[in-house]
Amino acid sequence: MAGVTLDTVRKVYTGNVEAVKGVSLGIKDGSFCVLVGPSGCGKSTLLRMIAGLETISGGAVKIGDRVVNEVEPADRDIAMVFQNYALYPHMSVYDNMAYGLKNRGTPKDEIEKRVKEAARILAIEPFLARKPRQLSGGQRQRVAMGRAIVRKPQVFLFDEPLSNLDAKLRVQMRVEIKRLQRALGVTSIYVTHDQVEAMTLSDQLVVMSGGQIEQVGTPAEVYRRPETRFVATFIGSPPMNILPGKVEGPGRVSVGGQTISVTDMRDGLAPGSAIEVGLRPEDVQAGAAGSSSLTMDVDFVEELGATQLFHGKVAGTEFVVQASTGQIPADSRTLTLSIDPTNVHLFDPQTTKRLGRA
Amino acid sequence: MEKRALFSSKILPYALLLPQLAITIIFFYWPASQAVWQSFLMEDAFGLTSEFVGFENYRALFAQPEYYRAMVTTAVFSTAVALLSLSCALLLATQADKQLRFAHGYKTLLIWPYAVAPAIAGVLWIFMFHPTLGTLARPIKGLGIDWNPMLNANHAMILLVLSATWKQISYNFLFFLAGLQSIPKSVIEAAAIDGSGPVRRFWTIIFPLLSPTTFFLIVVNIVYVFFDTFGIIDAVTGGGPAGQTTTLVYKVYADGRLGGDLGGSAAQSVILMVIVIALTAIQFKYVERKVQY
Lengths: 358, 293
Hints:
The complex is a heterodimer of chains A (358) and B (293).
Chain A: E1 4-13, E2 17-27, E3 32-36, H1 43-51, E4 58-63, E5 66-67, E6 78-81, H2 93-103, H3 108-122, H4 137-150, E7 155-159, H5 167-184, E8 187-192, H6 195-201, E9 204-209, E10 212-217, H7 219-224, H8 229-234, E11 241-249, E12 252-255, E13 258-261, E14 274-279, E15 285-286, E16 293-303, E17 307-314, E18 317-324, E19 334-338, E20 345-347
Parallel strand pairs in A: 3-8, 3-9, 6-7, 7-8
Antiparallel strand pairs in A: 1-2, 1-4, 4-5, 9-10, 11-12, 11-14, 12-13, 14-20, 15-19, 16-17, 16-19, 17-18
Helix pairs in contact in A: 2-3, 2-4, 3-4
Chain B: H1 11-38, E1 41-43, E2 50-52, H2 56-63, H3 65-97, H4 103-111, H5 118-129, H6 137-142, H7 153-181, H8 185-193, H9 198-228, H10 230-236, H11 248-258, H12 262-287
Antiparallel strand pairs in B: 1-2
Helix pairs in contact in B: 1-12, 2-12, 3-7, 3-9, 5-7, 5-10, 7-9, 8-9, 9-12, 11-12
């Protein structure tokens, strides 16, 4: 087992396009690290650099204590699960899983033992003799994972492994990956653009944008205390509402003339300066007007079964409120929202960084 | 789900098929049936009368030692050309598939020989290897080899194989390159992570995945060597020396056109026709079913 350390890792493509701009990250041995971000944020490139499938333009990648920049993928002691599974189409499931072991000269009985064991864990024993094309998407995904686990590598790398599956199977496989990782205790790095996968799977969540890390933390930390507006709107569904506001004084901001209280606010902000006020749809409650409340004009309501989404405007800006069904009358035209001061996130309009307590 | 267009009229589909059917019948079936008919006839020396002789032409053909020699020549020639052109093309395609600079120009240049007419290609090779004129024949002689494709049957065959191969490499290259590019990159990457070096990767992953292309090309190449090398043979050796490079197709021409034996020539054509039909049938049977995986 080994952790993974990235030290100001850069990737520059020909034409001076910088896909990864100096990323530093420490991944603890045995932990599950998820890299999440929109497409083109450099997360897959970063993963491929760890795998050795892309050259590293600058910085160092360490697996355990060893710098692997110049080490061939085969010698990095990693296994990778690809988005399109990348199974060998002309080989049986058994041979697909045994291939990596055969290449390394593992004795035949040992190969058989390990493949059988992996097949048992993944419940693909009945398919060992089949070819990949005779399997369903979920079964192929299991074979791809089986191919990774028989090798007993130091690190598992997952490149959007669930995006080719349908919604139901995706949830099921997500749970299985998590369980498997817990059971095997192998350091895992998982790339996805899906924030639900990111939140549910990770011990360590890394939010990336534009080739850089926006925030690193546990899923709860990232959700509760987003460091930038990007993270605030990217993590959480429906995304956080961002309202333009003004600083009124310590612990007080105003949105369209309505004043609300804030707990987590940086000291010394000049009254009257512009600020962005972030409120999660699930964090606001309909209630009576008070010292910290906003009024909202409701346009329409989306039914989600257990919850309802109220779409409308607060001080002229789009706003969404999520409430348990029945909590707010669905025919409401205006809502008074009472704001808990601990649930308000403040961001600098220029730098988009969080303006919380230091 | 029914995806085909359905016509309410019975006449329209036939009317639409008619031009194609007409072309097929006039240009393919009619000459073919003429050849079959002619193979049962024997003409007099002046070509004035012909007489129905049944299988006499075939019997005469199989009594000729020259015919068996032409069979062996054809087999040697086609095996050599198919092997050489396929392996050269595969080597070039694997190199072109790597991301190299000027890849586009490289591919375009490789495709050019295919556009050269067979007879011209033959003449080009003659200029290089003619025992007295050839630009490359001199250095070969300089090595102490008595190079003379005009007199030495083996030399003549080598020259034919080289020119026929040179022309066919382009075609094979295109198909191999397309085949290589259709192999998902992630499969190759997965193999690399699985600890398979470039050579092992080629033989255990790439080559098996290319097998439908390879099989298709083997059949196409054999058909090519059987039929389309006529121009090259005619230009380079004319079937000589002493009929040593006469293939089955060249013999059809030599016996019918030069020898005036229309019946015997027609009988040979019919045999060739059977061979092509067999090859095509094999190709359809296996290629359509995708042999490998």
